[in-house]
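Amino acid chain
________________
===
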Amino acid sequence: MQAAELQARQAPIKDHYRADPSAALITLRATGELGTQSASCSVDVGRRLVEAGLHPATGGDGTMACSGDMLLQALVACAGVTLRSVAINRGLDVGGTVSADGVLDFRGTLGVDREASVGFISIGLAFDLQTDASEEDVVALIRTTERYCVVYQTLKAGTPVSVTTTMGGPAQAER
C-alpha cells in the first residue's frame, strides 16, 4: 500500500469524525463461549474461533491459547499495524519484527500468595527494524506508534474496566 492510497482511504473518515466527533465513539466487543468440559473459553476472533485455556504454569496442558499470550499478541498486532500505517504515511520503507514479553508471578494467579501480583508485573515491547530511514525518522516513527497504538495506550493508561453479571437459563427459570 502506498501513502496516497492509505491517506485517500482515511481522509473521508477523518473528515467525518471532525464534523461529528460522536461518530468516532465506536464500541468494540469480544465474545467467548465458556467451555463445559474444561477450564476454557472459545473466543471468536473474526476469522476463526480461538479456544483459550489454562497456561501450563496454572495446570493447563498447553494445547489452548493462554489469555496472557493473547494480550501480548494483541499488543504486537496493534503496534505492528500502527507502525506500518505511520511508516506508509511518512513514505518510510520499514520492515522487521515486533515482539512483546511480559512477566507474570503465577503465585498471585493461583492464590498461593495474596501479596503476589495478579497480572503482568512488566511488559516489554520491542521493534527490530530493517530500514534505510534515518535514526531521527525511526525515533519519530516509534514515538508516533506509541502515541497511536490503541492497545499500548490502553495498557499504559490503566484504563478502568467495569464488570457486570447477568444470570439466566434453566436453573434460574426453576426458582
